[in-house]
Structures are given as C-alpha cells and as structure tokens.
Amino acid sequence: MADESEPASESMVDQITEKIKSHDSSSSSSSDSDNDRDEKPDAKIYRLFGRQKPVHKVLGGGKPADVFLWRDKKVSGGLLGVATTIWVLFELLEYHLLSLVCHVLIFALAVLFLWSNASTFVNKSPPKIPEVIIPEDVILGVASAFRVEFNRAFDIIREIARGRDLKKFLAMIAGLWILSVLGSWCSFLTLFYIGFILVHTVPVIYEKYDDKIDAFAEKVEAEFKKQYAVFDAKVLSKLPRGIKDKLP
After folding, report:
1. Residue 55 · residue 203 · CB < 8 Å
2. Is the confidence at residue 11, as pLDDT, over 50?
3. What's the rounded Cα separation, in Å, for the pair 114 and 247?
C-alpha cells in the first residue's frame, strides 16, 4: 500500500509543478506582450508629408472634412452628382452656361405662371414662391477665403522669384509645365472636374489604407534620396558654389 501511495503523491507533485511552470510562462509572455505594447508608442512611424494628425484634422475638420471623407454620404454624393451633371452638360453635350440659365428660368417661370392662373379653375392656392436673399456673411466668407489663398500663392511666388531656393524654383517650373500640358490635353472644366473627383476620392482612400500607403511612400522617399545623392555627386557638386548654396 505504501508503494501505491508513493507514485500517487509523486504524480500530484508533478502536476503541481507543471501548473506553476505554465503559470510562470504565461505571466512572462503577458509581461513580454505588455512590454511590446509599451515600446510600440515610442517607435516612430513614418507618415506621408510628415503627418502627425488624423486625416480629418489635416483637412481642417468640420463639415468640409466630413464631405471629403464621405462621413455625410448624402451631401458628398449630391455634390459629386451635381458636378458630374455639370460636366456632362457643358463638356459632353457642349451646352453653354448662358443657354442653360435662360432655359431653366423659362421653364420655371412658365410653370409658375401657368400654375398661378390655373389655380382659380382648380380651386387650389398657387404655390408660394420663396424669397431668395443671399446672406452678406456668405459672400464675405467666400471672398475672404479666396483672398487668403490668393495672398498665400502670391507670397510663395514672390519667395521663389527672389532666387533663394533653387529646389522650389525647379519644382514650381515643373508643376507649371505639367499643368500647361494637362491644359493642352483637356479643357479647364474637365481639369476642374478631375480635381474635384480626386478631392472626393484620394482622402477617403488614404484614410482607409494609410498604413500601406505610408509604407510605400517611405520606400519611394528612400529611393528618391538615393537617386538625389547620386545626382548631387555627379551634377550638383560641379556647380558653382553660389548656386549650390541655395539648395537645401
């Protein structure tokens, strides 16, 4: 009987030691995972254009950002539908703005006039025509926004024209040349419509796949720096010192 009790006691001891070891291993793994979580916030993650805020905050927040990111799908879809309708009318159907305004006014006036005169025979009151008054604050707000953007653009052009930054000068020349090529390929309305589509698609796609896009952009930036180093060694190093000092 003593021989049978000894293996039983040994098996109980083995089970207890195994439980202690499993508990220690699980606690160590959990502590390692906690350490990894603590280390993750310290790791610097690459963001496109040095972005440190969410995409919604970068776009200014509020209703415009909600529209660009499709937070309000009715408004975003309505604006996209209106823009598409305008582009189809003026670009594909070659409709003119003045003709469209006149035709819409003719149709609206005819319907309202006939309805007002027919109301006496139908015994229905004519429709109430709302009084349209454009608020002064809206006009001043739009004009102020355009004024700020135009002043900012003129400040950038003035800084580039001073000849202090060759890199910005070359980037501006390249951008204007690309814009002129695009202008020769399509009309201003088509170019504006393409920009409108990009504004309503690129931010929401970037917000959804920002990790993958940032990782790809990091690789592209590293490759660009490598090629720029080669260009610096072969071309920029041979330029006169005064021109090279203007480069960043």
Report:
1. yes
2. yes
3. 71
* Average pLDDT score, the chain: 75
185 pLDDT higher than 80: yes
For position 30, what pLDDT does the model report? 45
- CA distances 40 to 33, 36, 52, 190, Å, are 11, 6, 16, 45
Q: 93: phi > 0 → left, psi -120 to 50 → alpha, else beta; which? A: alpha
Per-position DSSP letters for 104-125, written without gaps between them = HHHHHHHHHHHHHHHHHHHT-P
196-215 pLDDT per residue, tens: 898 888 888 888 887 788 88
- d(CA 103, CA 114) in angstroms, rounded, equals 16
Distances (CA, A) of 200 to 30, 46, 51: 44, 24, 19
Tokens at 236, concatenated: 């920029």
Query: Within 13 Å, how many C-alpha atoms sit on residue 19's CB side?
Result: 6
Model pTM score? 0.56
Burial degree of 67 (CB within 10 A; 0-12, 13-18, 19+): buried
Q: Does residue 211 or residue 76 have the better pLDDT?
A: 76
CA distance 245 to 248: 8
Grouping H, G, I as helix, E, B as strand and the rest as coil, residue 66 is helix
**Cα torsion through 63, 204, 198, 97, rounded to 10:** -40
Q: Are 91 and 190 in contact (CB under 8 A)?
A: yes
Maximum average pLDDT range among 38-47, 64-73, 187-196, 207-216:
187-196
